[in-house]
Amino acid sequence: MKTYIFFYIMLKVIEINGYPIMIYEKDGKEYTYLAGCPHKQRPITAEGYKINLDNIVCPFYNAVFSLITGELIEPPKSKTPRTPNCKLIRARLINGEVVFEDKPFVPRTKG
């Protein structure tokens, strides 16, 4: 008898009140964050981002964040220092509105 283990993983981005929200789904659980890299406030799901296991890699400076906890796994490869509490901003969706666990920002598309 063979046993197969399948993992269902999906990342989608929606916009609520002008904020891009990324929803990471894995095995029936949802993890929801502002879709912005806290290092330089750039869009973390811009062209070139990668998902590796449960981590997302920012396409700008290769910072790696956990999509489960939001914590920084690998610091950005940049001369600009990161903030002391550099992690993804968790968001909760309640009745079509978004509530952030920290002060949100609108990711900048230019430098």
From TrEMBL:
InterPro entries: Rieske_2Fe-2S, Rieske_2Fe-2S_sf. The keyword Ribonucleoprotein does not apply. PROSITE patterns: RIESKE. GO terms for molecular function: 2 iron, 2 sulfur cluster binding; metal ion binding. This is Rieske domain-containing protein. Keywords: 2Fe-2S, Iron, Iron-sulfur, Metal-binding. SUPFAM superfamilies: ISP domain. Residues 12-100 form the Rieske domain. Gene3D superfamilies: Rieske [2Fe-2S] iron-sulphur domain.
